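Feature request disguised as a bug report, sorry. It would help if multi-protein outputs had a clear separator. Right now it looks like this:
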Amino acid sequence: MEKMRLGRTELMVSRSGFGALPIQRISFDEAKGILIKAYEGGINYFDTARQYSDSEEKIGYALSGVRENIIIATKSHAEDKKTLFEHLETSLKNLKTDYIDIYQLHNPIELPDPNDPDGIYAGMLEAKEKGMIRHIGITNHSIRNAILAAESGLYETVQFPLNALSSGEDLELVEVCRKLDIGVVAMKAMSGGLITNPASTFAFLRGYGNILPIWGVQRMSEIEDFIALENNPPPLDDRMWEIINRDRAELAGDFCRGCGYCLPCPVGIDIPNQARISLMMKRLPYEEFLEDSFREKMDLINSCINCGHCRDNCPYKLDTPNLLKKELKKYYEFYEANKL
């Protein structure tokens, strides 16, 4: 598989990376099969996080035997140095390694003070000095924070949602990082599943020579598709632009990106899916949405206690409770029109 230089880290990474958030939803043995398939297909970059339940453990379970051949990126959502080291020790144990290639601050609301001796950035520097991590990165859903982080000179990689739906403002980050020789990692490359033609967003991102997309995978067929795209990269031609422009038209405006920072919901609402159900029903096979079990999950929206957790934690500042109510109304209309 073709490789690229990840900014000033000097790491040579496969042009496609593996996003390991989804493998927390499958068994250890299922995850192992998919991870080994990715590795054997040429992928050497694996991204996970302390917050992704057992995702780190599954990477350690599957790939510890080839540790010297892969690049591991994980994340800490700590807010102080002590907690950061606790997260790091846990990650090292889970991943069955004694170092992390890229250790990332996980979507901080505000960028940390690099001069605070007890702060998380000081912790990152100390961990690097001790050889526990090799490179310092950051992830964010705020374009303001992402650009500020890049311009600060403190981070070697910046991870941000980038795909064929990205705005011109979001894509400015790519040029900022290119000029500053910072590695760009693209999360949400499929827009949380709303982009249903992987070839289109693959071709779009491939047009930028300094973007490393991490594809979220939880099925063997999905990793096979991405390996096939790597083996025969599609051109960004008129046909691809037709698909991209159609997606942009259908997905214009504010919508839930499915990032999951709204969770957990105290009444069990599956917010990342239910807050965009009207889009999913148009873009995915709809039969499962008519099942009684799915209807019962949607009905949980009526149990919302207006705690505000989802709204307060949405990086896109969506009014999530009202969005859920609107989506439930659309769902009921769809259900009544299509039920047997």
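(second protein starts here, but nothing in the output says so)
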Amino acid sequence: MASSDPVTAPPKAPARRSQRTRLIVGGGLGALVIAFAVLNLEEVDVNWFFGTASTPLIVVILLCIAVGMAIDRALVYRGRRQESTRRR
């Protein structure tokens, strides 16, 4: 037979100072990214490999950031893989 007492979750512990600081810094960085995007909406002519197109500047900037991050991750992965093979 089931009891009539409702099951309640234990109360959440208050957020630590470091968690609050991360949240505040993350929110500030998010606001900066949004402001940066809004300020860079004008169209620019871009010479792509396959032709020229008029593209919003923010798209060009974000694409460059994404390509840079992908290259960084590939190099880090490659370095870790080489390091693990040297240890063997």
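Even a blank line would do. Unrelated, but nice: The chain has one domain: 17-87.
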